[in-house]
Specification:
Helix content: 40-55%
Number of helices: 2
Order of helices and strands: HEEEEH
Strand order of the largest sheet: 1-2-3-4
Strand content: 15-25%
Length: about 110
């Protein structure tokens, strides 16, 4: 089971993969707790001259699942609420499949 700090380290490692492709400073901007884990919003930090934050393409938030250590990069072209709902449905399907498999195993002689 991941802690928020563990999840933060996973996200920072992914952000480090992007750093070589942009000239801006990248960082985690906000973290939102969810029933399954966290959503990490990230992006470029504004430069000192304009004070505005540069806009990046493809910097969708990361979903991190505390129970199974999954790090999921979301798409910027699909509403985040839909992606969260899809992931939560996936978790329910996986739990149902595990429960069904456990019941079948328990019924075996």
């Amino acid at each position: 089971m991941l802690t928020e700090d563990d999840a933060r380290q996973l996200v920072l490692a992914e952000i480090d993969n992007v750093r070589g492709h942009v000239e801006y400073t990248l960082q985690i901007l906000r973290v939102e707790a969810m029933p399954f884990g966290w959503i990490f919003y990230w992006g470029a930090v504004g430069d000192d001259r304009s004070g505005r934050r540069p806009r990046l393409g493809g910097n969708g938030p990361f979903l991190v699942d505390r129970d199974n250590d999954r790090l999921i990069r979301t798409a910027t072209s699909v509403p985040l609420a839909r992606q969260i709902a899809d992931y939560e449905r996936r978790l329910r399907r996986e739990a149902h499949a595990q429960n069904a498999a456990a019941k079948r195993a328990a019924q075996q002689p």
